[in-house]
Amino acid sequence: MSQVSQTYFPPLSINNASHSQKIWPDRLGFCVFTRHYSKGPAFISVFRGGVRRGCLQFWPDKQNHIEGLMLEKNNKAGTNRKSHSPFIQALMVGASLGLSTTFLPFQIAQAQTQAQDSNEFDINIPSQQLAHALSDLTAQTGFQTAYQTDLVAGLIAPKIQGTMSPDEALSLLLAGTGLQFQYSDSQTIVILPNDLSDGAASSTVAPVVIEATGETATGPVDGYRATRSTSGTRTDTALRDIPQSIQVVPRDVIEDRAATELKDVIQNVSSVQENSTSGNRAATFKVRGFSSPGYSVDGIMLNPAGDRPETFLDLSSVERVEVLKGPASALYGRAEPGGVINIVTRRPSKEFGADSTLTVGSYDFWRAQGSVTGALNASKTLTARLSSGLQTEDSFREAGTSRRQSVTGAIDWQPTEATTVTANVDYTHQNLPFDRGLIVTADNEVSLPADRFLAEKWSRIDAKKAHTTLGLEHQLNSTVKLSGSMVYDQALVQDTGIDLRSLQADGRTLNRRYTDREEDSRSFTSRFDAQFDFDTSSIGHTLLSGLEYSHSQMKFKSYRANIGAIDIYNPVYGADKVTPTLNSNFVEDIDTLSFILQDQIEFTPQWKALTGLRYDTVDQKQDQKVGDSNAPINEDALTKRFGLVYQPIQILSFYTSYGESFSPQSGQTRDGSALSPEEGWQVEAGAKFDLLADRLSVTTSVFQITKENVATTDPEDTNYSVLTGEQRVRGIEINLTGEVLPGWNIITSAAYLDAEVTKDEDYDVGNRLGGVPVWSGSIWNSYEFQSGNLKGLTLGGGVQMVGARKGDLNNSYAVDGYARFDASVAYKITENIELSLNGKNLTDADYIETPVGRTENYAGAPLSIYAAIKVKM
After folding, report:
1. Are 143 and 137 in contact (CB under 8 A)?
2. Are 308 and 278 in contact, with CB atoms under 8 Å apart?
3. What are the tens digits of pLDDT across the range 16-45?
């Protein structure tokens, strides 16, 4: 193996609307180096932040040329085919290779990838500094611009407006500046001085600024297809390089589907179903057959002292929802073996932007949401975003009015090129009806009408939650990156819930119980990571070591009393809210200390591996003030993950992996004892490939998960849990996401799950896991007309299909499968104003969306129509 490097290649600053990053040179002083194997392809690795971000494969021609860079047979850098100066060589090679494929995976339709002079755009750029004008040109055309910073310093560009090609626009912008432009590839433009002669450039030059709109692992996604994620590694990694299935639902899907709750987003993901809402308090989900009590926000898990999130998630501040399939305790610590849902929040932008949406719909639905972002100083090193959502509706269940308010503030500060400080504050307040849904009737079916309400109007929930995050990231040098974060959560949830108990002998009179409950919770998590990028001989490493500490507390108090029964077929409301008796009062504290070590290994550009270890110690104490206190829990665990990726060509990778899970449980059994930790493991194999290069991607996987010490809802009392021994899920998944044709985006998934009890003393071996369908899938399409009289019109439609499910672990009842059809139509009146109409459950299907137990089943909403107007600046 040989290397080609050029020490005169400068560091690159990468700027776009949401972030600023620098490409650091490697130890040889070059940001791009080439491994050239004899009689084989050249592999060009691109570095960013000291980390190898991608590898490009090129086959040299007979003259040993690669994209304008000539590799001499003595394996030293030769002259450029076009005989440009060393600076121009470096700039063009860096721009065309490093950006056009790794940093800028633009999904530009084939019809638009023609000669530059055949593209025309509606361009409107005000008179301003030339650097900012070039940034606007990038945003409006998708063409990258690369230039040496001192070339444009102090230059003012004129105002240009009209329909024109990038060439025409650049000619106007650069008129009288003494600058010219050249193309390094079909989408990258290099700005040069007019009098530059070959060899005129110095061997050491200032940083090159690249204005880009490429995807990062935490930033916006262009369309439906994401290519990078941090959820699977805690590093910015291409999805194709991660030996585990990860699905990303970006904001474009959230907006196109008019999603207002997390379950609206999750329905696009294979093998994920809603698990429960715990009486309409907050949603939890099943991933690959196993319930997850919470999710993570920007990679940090929620308070483990609770058995669910404290509030429903408002989507106004969500950039993307990512689901890491399979055990992830070697990365996240406490986690279920089915997988982890990670919420990625919206970050501030350097450029001003704002959007607001007003939606009205069925059942007196009303929602207003908006977001505004931009720079707070002239140097754009301090940026901010403010997002909010206000929502109210009267349920089809006639349970009463639901209200939710959410506001999120985010600030990014970049005091130096290598340092970034982030801060987030999120506050949510919700006031909702407490509602356990429907029950299994005497015919052993959930046969009551979907709108049948079996509680009382005074049964309500009031929840407040504040979530605060402070983060710091510093690129120490080309090898080491340090990062740290602190997260503080505080929540107060109060409810006067009515639990549905049992039917009397007449088969129609339902016993009920009232609980006056308060949950006062708080948690603090601190994390420190050190990331090292280095080589051992020809093998590349991205080594992550981390330390994490968390303290969580739950103060729980509840009072209970039986209230008047109700006739399920002819309900008469008005039962008195009697004075309850104290039945539980405890304080639970959980302290967790964790160490992580992970290595992403690149043996060759085709063979890559991922290994990870995490050691957790857990100290859990519960001080029960009513009756005897439970014995303290002191647990530790070493969880592991291993994976291998084989990538024969750039658009195809095969992978296999093994992972483990460990999850201390915060619940308790009816006798007051704490639950033992859950443990699980998974083996998985799959493939990730592009049906259309850089546009339409497929992920397929086959897996088996085994879980022990499984906690499920106690069939005798839904406020407690039972352990059922061992459960196993074997499954197959396929997911397809991306752009089929210009304007036609699609996200679709399908899953087969064989989920059953394999060991148990209380339940029959072979019973299916409750609420898990054998077959499920979904598809959503949207098409935006690209030209003609219908330009600006977008049509969308899809279906969610879920098979029959057993209602509980006893398999004592079942609910039917269903198919729900949704559609949308949107029209842009102007570039800034859009009208839309969304219909959900167009066939008005009657179905059970979420079975939990015999006295808790949630019906799907009937036909609903929503109209919205969106203004964007």
Report:
1. yes
2. yes
3. 333 333 344 433 333 333 333 333 344 444
CB atoms within 10 A of CB 325: 30
What six digits make up the tokens of 315?
A: 């989507």
- Give me the residue label for tokens 């070590």: 597
- Please state, in angstroms and rounded to a whole number, the distance separating the CA atoms of residues 704 and 729: 6
Identify the H or E element spanning 189: strand 188-193
Q: For residues 121 and 414, what is the distance between their CA atoms, to the nearest angstrom?
A: 33
**Strand (E) or helix (H) holding 480:** strand 480-503
Output the six-digit token pair for 829: 């009146």
User: If you ran DSSP here, which 8-state letter would residue 131 be given?
Assistant: H
Distances (CA, A) of 430 to 302, 313, 314, 580: 18, 10, 10, 24
**Using one digit for the tens of pLDDT, what is the confidence trace for 278-329?**
999 999 999 999 988 889 999 999 888 888 899 999 999 999 999 999 999 9
Measured distance CA(150)–CA(191) in Å, rounded: 11
Contact 579, 560 (CB under 8 A): no
Structure tokens at 729: 């899920």
Tokens of 832: 């800034």
What value does the mean pLDDT of the chain take?
84
Task: For residue 239, give Cα distances in angstroms to 216, 245, 824.
Answer: 11, 8, 30
**Residue 571 has which token pair?**
């309900």
Going by their DSSP bridges, the two strands 696-708 and 726-741 should be labelled as antiparallel
Q: CB of 220 within 8 A of CB of 318?
A: no
Tokens 């985010």 found at = 410
Cβ proximity of 301 and 334 under 8 Å? yes
Q: Give the three-state DSSP class for 316.
A: helix
Q: How far is CA 297 from CA 206, 229, 468, in A?
A: 38, 14, 11
Q: Tokens for 843, please give them.
A: 């066939």
Residues in the chain: 873
Task: Evaluate whether 311 touches 278 at the Cβ level (below 8 Å).
Answer: no
Element (H or E) spanning 406, and its range? strand 401-416
- 570 burial (CB, 10 Å; 0-12 / 13-18 / 19+) is exposed
Longest dimension (CA), the chain: 97
User: Which pLDDT belongs to residue 667?
Assistant: 64
Give the 3-state secondary structure of residue 532: strand
List CB contacts of 61: < 8 A, sequence separation 6 or more.
none
The number of angstroms, rounded, from the C-alpha of 608 to the middle of its chain's C-alpha atoms is 24
581 bridge partner residues: 560
**C-beta separation of 437 from 815 below 8 A:** no
d(CA 27, CA 840): 56
Q: Which helix (H) or strand (E) holds 98?
A: none
- Percentages helix, strand, coil for the chain (3-state, rounded to 5) are 10, 55, 35
pTM comes to 0.79
Phi, psi (deg, nearest 5) at residue 827: -140, 130
Rounded CA separation 617/638 (Å): 9
Listing DSSP states for 240-294 in one string gives GGSSS-EEEEEHHHHHHTT--SHHHHHTTSTTEEEEE-TTTT--EEEETTEEES-
Least Cα distance to 850 among 755, 787, 770, 790 occurs for 770
Chain centroid to CA 403: 26
